[in-house]
Amino acid sequence: MRTFWDQVVALIEQGDRPQGAAEAQPTEPDGASSPQVDARGPALKAQCEDIGRALEHLERIKGLFQDFLPTVSELALAFDACDRRLEETTAKLAALGQAHRDLAARHASALEDRNRLAKRAAALEARLATGTEQTGESESPEEPGAVGKRRAAT
Fold it and tell me: How far apart are CA 48 and CA 26, in angstroms?
């Protein structure tokens, strides 16, 4: 975009600006011919030439703007598309954040349940160990159902 404005400024600065053409001259009717303009003086002729060059510069600038407009419209469309994608991504991120918080809460609850069950299992094993010491029985790995039989016996 900077190069575009550099071109515009260069076109504007290209024009020759006469030093002594600042005095206001009366305007000539539309039917004035070139010899009549020549008779009025070189200052008026210089002003007319300046106006002609300025109009040419304006036409070039208009062309540059017309070349520039499609680029601006493409940028605007791209910006709108990016804006929509940003909104969608933000919504997805919010949903993922909520899901993460939910999973963290479920994980904490599962850890509490596991710890509570581990304490209860340790307490039961301690009770069973105490019960086997009193009765003199020992738990052997060959008898997988021995613990269940003792529970039913007590």
Answer: 12
